[in-house]
Amino acid sequence: MLKRDLKVDTARGIACILLVSYHTIGYSPLTGLRLAADSPIAIVNSWLAYLRMPLFTILSGIVYAWRPVLPGHTIAFLKGKVLRLILPLICVGYLFAVVQMITPGANYKVSLEQFPFLMFWPYEHFWFLQSLFIIFIVISFIDKNNSLKTNKGFISIFFLSSILFVYRDNFTTFFFIQ
Fold first, then answer.
1. C or N: which end of the chain has fewer Cβ atoms within 10 Å?
2. Domain total for the chain?
3. For residue range 96-105, what is the model confidence (pLDDT) as tens digits?
4. Structural domain boundaries, residue 38
5. Are the CB atoms for 74 and 140 separated by under 8 Å?
6. Would you say residue 1 lies in a domain?
């Protein structure tokens, strides 16, 4: 059993607080606390955008590096990710949607037609669980094939990632609820 790293756990706690504060404060005057865009709190919240998600992403990589998928254990690894990411996505995501549907004045209400598909499209802040799961699927395949252990494999994945990044707007709109 790995011993917990207090520095990483502290950074994870800070990242969680920053993320919860972001969603509480809101990303525009129409969301969260509905503060004016020039409010000092809204401005600081906006500045922290360059820290919040990169911090979460870096911490996810560190934690993965501690316990990567082991050869021959890809299915067990992905089952664990389903329990830690997809199950909460389904349970909490649908509960969140129902609460928003029945709460007067909620920021966003899902239509009944959209409701069955919430776990397939990015919905509110739950998109991060979906994206992490997809990343874990991809990285488990990459690790299983030792693709990052050679220069050719690393360069190939780097260029593919770069191309996907440059053209991301051409295919990401497909995944968002319209």
1. N
2. 1
3. 888 888 888 7
4. 6-175
5. yes
6. no
